[in-house]
Write a structure and sequence with these properties.
Length: 248
């Protein structure tokens, strides 16, 4: 029972032991309707806008969301989407980066641009304006900290956030977005055995061996008078000798 108790004490301290491994990343994609849906979708047969931007491999003009304006002026609209909860990441979050893949449908007559959108703590945050060309390009905005708290991201904030895209266009030419995704960069935290816990486990292991008869100590008398009353002790496990030590 004592051995078991010591082992349990050692393992009880493991959650407080922290050592950090090499950084990792986890990619999260749209998986549901977010707070705001303003953009048009293609094809119109898709049930929801997020279904047009959630693919792992870009399908380009097969599915996308878009903004088009019939007049000679620029206007913008945006979507935000519910994002997958994390499943692999753990430890410290180094950054959260939102990506969008966008283009315009034809040679421009006016201004066509795209911005990333991230929603956290009921507030929207927009990336820089990216002027669009006629070929698809990936644009991104990286947040080293949560823009609302200005502190390091937490995993609960990552799970609760929304991500999306803002598109602007005019003169009948579409501004399109075919993909939205989020990459979380993190340094995973894994348990280690600190010295204190190792000592407890070592003591427990020694007691376990002694209780089972596997560990045996033998007293050896000193060979010279200069050692006084000091005696040597020698341990063995199943016939294998361990290094000798001494005690009074």
């Amino acid at each position: 029972m004592l051995t078991l108790a010591l082992l349990l004490i050692g393992f009880a301290f493991l959650p407080f032991a922290k050592v950090y491994a090499n950084p990792g990343t986890e990619t999260l994609r749209p998986m549901g309707v977010g707070t705001t849906t303003q953009l048009s979708k293609y094809p119109s047969s898709q049930s929801y806008n997020w279904e047009c931007v959630d693919e792992e491999t870009a399908d380009e003009d097969v599915t996308y969301v878009y903004r088009v304006e019939s007049g000679f002026y620029t206007s913008s609209k945006y979507d935000t989407y519910a994002i997958q909860d994390h499943s692999l990441g753990s430890g410290t979050i180094n950054s959260v980066t939102i990506y969008i893949r966008c283009r315009m449908s034809d040679t421009p007559w006016g201004t066509h641009w795209a911005k990333t959108v991230i929603r956290t703590h009921d507030n929207n945050y927009y990336g820089n304006q990216n002027n669009l060309g006629t070929s698809y390009v990936n644009y991104y905005t990286q947040y080293s900290t949560n823009p609302y708290t200005t502190s390091a991201w937490t995993w609960s904030e990552v799970d609760a956030m929304e991500a999306g895209v803002q598109l602007a266009g005019d003169v009948g030419i579409q501004s399109r977005c075919t993909q939205v995704w989020v990459v979380v960069d993190y340094t995973p935290q894994v348990p280690e055995f600190p010295y204190g816990e190792l000592a407890v486990l070592a003591i427990g292991f020694a007691i376990l061996l002694a209780n089972t008869g596997a560990l045996r100590w033998s007293r050896i008398q000193p060979r010279t008078r200069s050692l006084g009353r000091q005696a040597f002790w020698k341990a063995s496990i199943k016939g294998s000798n361990l290094p000798s030590g001494h005690a009074l």
